[in-house]
Give the backbone structure.
Amino acid sequence: MTPDLTLYDLAGADDTLRFSPHCWKTHMALAHKGLTARTVPWRFTEKEKIEFSGQKLVPVLVHDQHVVSDSWRIACYLEDTFPERPSLFGGDGGRAVSLFANSWADTTLVPVLARLLLPAIHGLIHEQDKDYFRASREKRFGPIEDLPSGYAEQIQALRAALLPLRHTLGKQPFLSGAQHGYADYAVFGMFMWARCTSTLELLEPDDLVYAWRERLLDAFDGLARRAPAVWG
C-alpha cells in the first residue's frame, strides 16, 4: 500500500516556486525512499495553517495520524518508519555523520547564503509575507537593500566555507560515499535555496562542489533540476 503522506512546503507568490532549503532536504529524502507526498504550499505568515504541528515552521510531514516537523526529524522518521526502503543513512554511523552535515550546513552555510539571497527572495514572496519577512530578516542581517554591496565578499566567504566539502569530494563522489544519501541532501538543500531564488553564480565551473551539485540536480530523474527556479 502506498503511504498517505502530506508535506507542507514553503512557497513564493507563485505556488510552484518551492525554495526552502529545509523543505528541499525533505524532498530529496522522500525521493531517496521512493515515496511521494502531496504538497501543500505554505507562506511565512500562514502560521495557523500548521498550528496543528505545535510549532510555526516548515517542513511539516503528515503520515496518517503522525505529524513530524523539522527536516532532520522528518529524515529520521522516514528512515525508521520505512526501513525496507533504501536507507538514507546506511546505518547508525551514517546517521551520526549526516547529523553533523546537517548541523554544519545550517550553522555555517545559512548565514552566508542569507546575505546573498534575501533581496531576491523578498521580490519573490507573496505580498502578504513581505512586511513580516523584511522585519524578521532585517533584525538579523540589517537593511535588505544594503546587502548587494557585499555580494562579492560573501561569495568568497561561501567558497571558503565549502572547503571541507570540497576536500571530501576530492576523495569520493558524494559526502555519503559512493552513492548520495542524507548527508548530501542536507547540504544540497542550501544550493536549491539559491537556485530557486537567485541568478548569482556561487561556484566556479571547475569546482568539485559544482560537479557534485550537478550530479544531485540529475538525481531521481532530475527532480531538482526540473523544479521551478529563477536560475536556468
